[in-house]
Amino acid sequence: MKVRCEIDHVRTLKKGSKLIFSLDDDNTDLLMANIQNFRKLPLVIELRVDEEEQKERLGQIVTEQRSKVYALFREIAEHIGDTVEGIKGDLKAEFMNTRGLEEFSLSNCTKHEAREFIEWLLEWAFENEVPLSHHPTSYVDDIEGYLRICLKQGVCAICGKPAEVHHWDAIGAGRDRRKYDDSDHRKIALCRKHHSEVEQIGRDSFEAKYHVYGVIYDEAA
Questions:
Q1: 165 with 187: CB under 8 angstroms?
Q2: pTM (2 decimals)?
Q3: Residue 151 belongs to some domain of the structure
Q4: How big is the CA angle at 110 (ends 50 and 86), to the nearest 5 degrees?
Q5: Which of 35, 44, 179, 187 lies at a 20 to 30 A Cα distance from 17?
Q6: Could you tell me which of 150, 50, 71, 182 has the C-alpha nearest to residue 118?
Q7: Looking at the structure, do residues 113 and 135 belong to the same domain, yes or no?
Q8: If you compute the radius of gyration of the chain from its CA atoms, what whole number of angstroms results?
Q9: Among residues 216, 68, 205, which one has the least CA distance to residue 136?
Q10: Residue 152: which pLDDT band, with cuts at 50, 70 and 90?
């Protein structure tokens, strides 16, 4: 059987050592349910490092992020009639040049770099009208980053169609929107259909239905 645990304490004895492991509740229940099967039997215990959790602790790119990067590579490559390997270098170079970054590797870059690259690839796909097989939110770790991309690119956060800015925080009646400074108001990009829907069902119901919300976005920034 396999359980997740951490070494809690190591005690050196006259003969050998004593290791104490700590387990969470779920793994404790699993172990206790099966421990009778192993009593008085010789055991071989294999210890393995949880690579994904260690990467998480070190702040390195994780498998899920890498999978999202290559999924976007495939979408873009198919759209422009190229291969993943054919576009990979060019897209990385364009990203690094745009952000003023040095060379980075998708095998050991940081989670932050991976998150920025994913958002940049998604924005590139919007700009170049790349049709995506899955909803754009499935590619991102940060929903707020996605919502800002939609505002910047003028695409609906719900369906990806051309959109306009909807003020999540109401400006108030009687104010001239052309002169009023709304830079500290939350906004969201919505097409006409979804703009009408949020007006009909209300902001809270709309957020609960689609799991999106307004974010601070200043076009001049």
A1: yes
A2: 0.66
A3: no
A4: 105
A5: 35
A6: 71
A7: yes
A8: 25
A9: 68
A10: very high
